[in-house]
Design a protein that fits this description.
about 400 residues; alpha/beta; Aminopeptidase; 2 domains; 5-stranded mixed β-sheet; 4-stranded mixed β-sheet; globular
């Protein structure tokens, strides 16, 4: 959606995505829904609605008051692994934008000059030979053994990685019967670090672990590179705008029924936090979040800032059934509505105070210095539209 014309050009991000295996009713105990396997465990159903509402509200106000400028609303799918914004940046969709605003549901209200972890994702597929596991094991070459060997090599590598590194995986295919030597197996890896360049170097070492797994088991290795996302490039000028408005507009109050829901849900959390954090605003300036987001790629080419509002019970981790449960409550809706107001008012501040955007752009250029944005996508890489799809046992790629 594009409304208005001329400068400045202000962009809002509206994500929508969900995560598998986290279907959940909006109740403070584990109860899966029968109609879906996916759940909004990172609050993207709230994210997209608030951003869209803010963009529409601000565009309407601009028209009524003859305020010059352009509003752009970007629908952003597949944040949870698809790296969609990295492809959007590569396609030049953010060219000409002067500033970008976004937000995210969380377990508290927070804003500030904050970064994230860069991330690379890849699926390592091993192709072996099937055989009777008891009658003719010498004729088989186990693809599952290759996965296990790769995983062991990666565990040993962990000790020799830089501070802040995160490596995690799931085995998405490992055979179908114990008495058949698995001819195909796949393991799906994420590797992260606060710096993109370090992630690239770590990924090369991860590939060596995969090669070791194939070499030691006499299997063939196929690598399905899913792409990567950069760390968020902070902008303190924009962060101060959203911080000020989050403090100014934060009017969250909770009923006895909402507080009882929160207390009941906290009984399921390993590290519950004070309920009072629902109404506080935390300053996250200078910190590095342990998650990753493809907003990072946008922030390297356009001054960008984001914030969180309290949509979950304090202490609730993202990507959990508890986050899904909270996301269907009035607690989440109140947080979403607060985010709408903060986005809209912050956008108005930027549109009506030309100096703010100029200051944000000067800060962006100063922080970049001699550095340039380098995508973690391969030059000819296409969006992984089927990255949730079950692995194929097709012919292995040429090595």
């Amino acid at each position: 959606m594009t409304v208005g014309e001329g400068k400045p050009v202000l962009a809002f991000l509206a994500e929508f995505d969900a995560l598998p295996g986290l279907s959940q009713e909006a109740v403070p105990y584990r109860q899966k829904r029968d109609d879906s396997q996916y759940g909004h465990a990172c609050g993207h159903h709230l994210f997209g609605v608030a951003s869209t509402s803010a963009a529409i509200s601000l565009a309407t106000y601009m028209k009524l008051n003859n305020i010059p400028g352009t509003i752009k609303l970007y629908g952003c799918p597949a944040e949870e692994g698809g790296s969609a914004k990295a492809f959007m940046v590569r396609a030049g969709l953010f060219d000409g934008c002067d500033a970008v605003l976004h937000w995210h549901p969380g377990s508290n209200n927070s804003a500030g000059d904050r970064s994230t972890l860069a991330r690379i994702a890849a699926k390592f597929r091993f192709h072996g030979k099937a055989a009777h596991a008891a009658g003719a094991p010498e004729q088989g070459r186990s693809a599952l053994d290759a996965v296990e060997l790769m995983n062991h090599a990666t565990q040993l590598m962990r000790e020799h990685t830089p501070e802040g590194t995160r490596i995690h995986h799931v085995i998405t295919s490992g055979g179908e019967a114990p008495n058949v030597v698995p001819e195909f197996a796949e393991v799906y890896y994420y590797i992260r670090h606060p710096e993109s360049q370090v992630v690239k170097e770590l990924y090369q070492r991860l590939e060596l672990c995969a090669q070791a797994g194939a070499l030691g088991t006499e299997t063939k290795l196929e690598i399905n590179y899913q792409g990567g996302i950069a760390e968020i490039f902070p902008n303190n000028t924009l962060a101060q705008v959203t911080m000020r408005n989050l403090n100014l507009l934060n009017d969250l109050k909770y009923s006895e029924e909402q507080l009882q829901f929160a207390l009941k849900l906290q009984e399921t959390l390993p590290k519950p936090q004070p309920i009072t954090q629902l109404q506080e605003v935390l300053d996250k300036s200078g910190t590095v979040g342990k998650g990753s987001t493809d907003v990072g790629d946008v922030s390297w080419v356009v001054p960008t800032t984001g914030f969180t509002t309290a949509c979950w019970v304090p202490g609730t981790p993202a990507h959990s059934w508890q986050a899904v449960a909270c996301g269907g409550t009035t607690i989440a809706k109140q947080g979403m509505n607060l985010a709408t107001r903060v986005l809209a008012v912050s956008g108005l501040d930027l549109l009506t105070n030309e100096g703010l955007i100029q200051q944000a752009q000067l800060e962006h250029h100063r922080r970049l210095g001699e550095r340039k944005y380098e995508s973690l996508l391969k030059p000819d890489q296409k969006p992984p539209l089927n990255y949730r799809k079950a692995p194929s046992r097709g012919t292995p790629a040429e090595q």
